[in-house]
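Q: What changes when 4-nitrophenyl phosphate is included in the input?
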Amino acid sequence: MEKKKILFVCLGNICRSPMAEGTFQKILEREGKETNFEIDSAGLISSHSGELPDARMRRHAQRRGYELTHRSRQVKREDFDRFDYIIGMDAQNIRGLKELAGTAENIGKIYRMTDFCQRMNDSEVPDPYYGGDSGFEYVIDLLEDSCEGLFKFCNE
Ligand code: 4NP
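A: The predicted holo structure follows.
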């Protein structure tokens, strides 16, 4: 079976998209489906390249049993060749990805994370960077819901 390849994208690749990657990874482990998928995350900006996720994001993640070890990297045009699904967290991410995509075929690979929500009702995974603890908790709530929906979507 062809591997499904998913790239999660946010602005800095230190909060939301590494959390999305960690959440989806845990679902794959639970379901015994790790070998069927290739997942990664990236950011529209390069200012945090090489860094671990934000310490606040890691702390909130750890409390729910997630260990985030991804190193930040910038998304690039070639990612559209490598991945089948490129998933942005908010409208700004989607705009940036569409600019980078270049072709209609590439644009067709772009999805919005919250479109996979099943329980919660929001149109974006909001940027938690300048907010407080509740923002980080809300990001994880949204990602746990939407990653379950994404997993179902990929297995239909
Ligand atoms: P993320 O959060 O996009 O969820 O990783 C942010 C991280 C860094 C910045 C903004 C948002 N920043 O402006 O440096």
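Observations recorded in class: The two ends are 14 Å apart (CA to CA).
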